[in-house]
Amino acid sequence: MAKTKTAFFCQNCGAQHAKWVGQCTSCKQWNTLSEELLEKAAAPAWKSNEGSHQKTPKPLRLSEIDADKEMRLSTRDTELDQVLGGGLVPGSMTLIGGEPGIGKSTLLLQIALRLNVKTLYVSGEESQRQIKMRAERIAPESDSCYILTETNTSRIFRQINELNPDLVIVDSIQTLHSEFLEAGAGSVSQIRECTAELIKFAKESHTPVILIGHITKDGSIAGPKILEHMVDTVLQFEGDRNHVFRIVRALKNRFGSIAELGIYEMKANGLIPVANPSQILISQNSEDLSGTAIAATVEGVRPLLIEIQALVSTAVYGTPQRSATGFPAKRLNMLLAVLEKRAGFKLAAKDVFLNITGGIQVDDPAIDLGVLAAILSSNADIPIPRDICFAAEVGLAGEIRPVPRISQRITEAEKLGFSQIYISTNVKGLPKKTGIGIQKIAKVEDLVSALFG
Length: 453
Prior knowledge:
The protein is of the alpha/beta class. The chain is about 25% helix and about 25% strand.
């Protein structure tokens, strides 16, 4: 009887160890090693059609390399195409992660149903009947989408060789297992081996592959960190179950920018792309309320107007509370210190709560001025006119600093009917003709006097 081979794998980075140790020598994390059965594969599950006569790549000069733009496969989804940089690149591997029930499977299923190319949807979590019921809600019948419920990679590649699809979607990578490894599905070695087999298939056949990945409690994709290094694109699907809006961000993209953002609205018939997110992120309440301000931000190449809500109240307990939703808490503390030091507002004994409406996360410093305006409005209980918006960064000295792409922010504010926008005095590149009033301020004190006299 052959001796069983085992190895210890780090659950954080995927490093392999011959014996158990308390600290991983690769990532320096403690108590992350687990023992798994290991057996070398005699042959990979995916075998190239060219066999042993496959050409060996040769080094080329830069002048000899064809730099023409590579053709992309459009997903027929404007939001996802924008995040991907124009569509799916042939031979690329895309990994999309998100919380359970957020809509990952729904998004990829509706893409598979709407494409005119032959698509294979491999599901290891749902039956064909369950997928059929969801597909009937999303889109009409599709003759180009094939559903396969299988978790064994050898059987999956056997079906791929027979079907020869133009796009492969796997839901999810944690459910697959290779018969050449004795470890269980979802283990570090199985995830790494199955991903490597799919990457080999994608690169040799020039077929794009999309993987769905589970996430851990802290929001990172489950499995070894090397998984994110192996794939070409990593997308994060975000959203709050209490909101109908979902956001797709690119955490890594070898074929485009990682600053792009896609916004969807969850409805009964699937995820609907939002063409003008500024209108949905701003409440249509006609009544003027204190503690509310509108700020202009930019996500990638897309300008957005978002609504900032602030609540300043007397602290009930001894230590004042500082809470921020959708905005960095450390930056909120910095802005409160600037208000107290430079403008003379005593907020040390008051609770401050901040919220970015719509359930989105914003890291753009350009909304600093809007945050201060909302806090000052709530503190004085004086509403800010609904036709005013803000676009500027606030420095530690209380100075109002310029932000990039100011012309795009101004144009977006004008398009939505705002009459005034507050920006820095040092800004350059303003549009020559505009129908919106541009108010330039230099310090935080100027903002206080301009809004509240």
